[in-house]
Amino acid sequence: MKAEATLGYAHDRFGEGGIFARANFSMPVDDHWEVSAHASYAEINSRSQSGGGGALTSFGLDLLYRFDTGGFGATEIAQRADFGKALP
């Protein structure tokens, strides 16, 4: 099992922004299949919202399949199907 986390800060051209976080957990099933789950959270400061606030911005389940390409220096191609949901 593999776990990854990202924490950062982003802003737009108006200087509005905030922190965001993303977590991803993945587990190989066999030599080709991998299943992972992810969630994102953002704390956005906006002039259009009084006081700002945080929200779960997306979540999802990914199914990944890897296979050997058989040459040309490429060892694998990954096909990802994201069953995620972006929240308003």
Class of secondary structure makeup: mainly beta
What is the domain tally? 1
Question: Describe the biggest sheet?
Answer: 6 strands, antiparallel
User: Which overall shape is indicated by the principal axes computed on the Cα atoms?
Assistant: elongated
Identify the notable features of this structure and list them briefly.
elongated, 88 residues, 6 strands
Give your account of this protein's structure:
With about 90 residues, the protein is an all-beta fold. The chain has one domain (about 1-85). It has strands spanning about 1-10, 15-30, 35-45, 55-65, 75-80, 85. A hairpin with a 4-residue loop joins strand 2 and strand 3 (about 35-45). It is elongated, with a radius of gyration of 17 Å.
Question: Could you give a quick summary of the protein structure above?
Answer:
The protein is mainly beta and 88 residues long.
Ordered list of secondary-structure elements with their pairings:
Elements: E1 2-11, E2 17-28, E3 33-45, E4 53-67, E5 77-82, E6 85-86
Antiparallel strand pairs: 1-2, 2-3, 3-4, 4-5, 4-6
